Amino acid sequence: MAAGDILTIMHDNAGNRARIEAKTREILSSPAVPILLGGDDSVVSPFLAGFADHGPVWILQIDAHIDWRDEVHGERYGYSSPMRRASEMAHVAGMVQVGLRSVGSARLTEIEAARHYGSRFVTAREVHALGVEAALRHIPEGARVVVTFAATVSTQASCLASPHVRPAASPIRRSSISSQASASGRGSPVSILWSSIRQTTLTACRRSPPRAFSSM
């Protein structure tokens, strides 16, 4: 059931976040699971904030980068910062960050901050060597989990591999999860996770504004 596009206004950063969080809370008030498609790093924090009354939750971040910058050019809710903001939310019990191939815009201070918080890092190499269990073993049995997926982590969605259809994401590198699988001549060990989100991810290629869905 589509909940519709969320209105976003250029430069109205606080208002955009408020509308995303409000729509997430609205969907969670019904017997449904919210799915947010589109946007950039700035949409993640308000989406996660919308789960405040439904915690504790764990975050399973599937991404090539750790996204732990406290701020970038003075902006604390945008590029490379969503996991840092998530760590400050009382209802977030922990996070597992999967598919890392580099620290991206992070510096040593961000890596240390993430480790001090208790974030579990699972690199792309570990996923290929050990399978999805390398990530799932860190999540407590029975935990409620919010999954975030970034286009930079995989090349399996061909439409996501081109910057002109996802300009908010940085270029995909050869060391990403699926490119490693191709180089090794075998299927990606994240296929279990991928198959469940592939269709909704492909839908994102055809829409630029954030779009909220409620999945019954």
Description of the molecule:
The chain has 216 residues and is α/β, with parallel strands linked by helices. It has helices spanning 13-28, 44-49, 82-87, 108-117, 124-130, 133-136, 177-184, 191-204, and strands spanning 2-5, 33-37, 57-62, 92-100, 120-123, 144-149, 211-215. The strands form 2 sheets. The protein has a 4-stranded parallel beta sheet. A 3-stranded antiparallel beta sheet has the order 1-7-2, with helices on both faces. Mean pLDDT is 78; it is low at 155-162 and 179-211.
The number of helical segments is 8
Shape verdict: globular
Task: Report strand %.
Answer: 15-25%
Q: Ranges with pLDDT <50 over ≥5 residues?
A: 155-162, 179-211
Features:
216 residues, alpha/beta, 4-stranded parallel sheet, 8 helices
Topology:
Layout: E1 2-5, H1 13-28, E2 33-37, H2 44-49, E3 57-62, H3 82-87, E4 92-100, H4 108-117, E5 120-123, H5 124-130, H6 133-136, E6 144-149, H7 177-184, H8 191-204, E7 211-215
Parallel strand pairs: 3-4, 3-6, 4-5
Antiparallel strand pairs: 1-7, 2-7
Structure described in brief:
The chain has 216 residues and is α/β, with parallel strands linked by helices. Helix content is 33%, strand content 18%. The radius of gyration is 16 Å and the shape is globular.
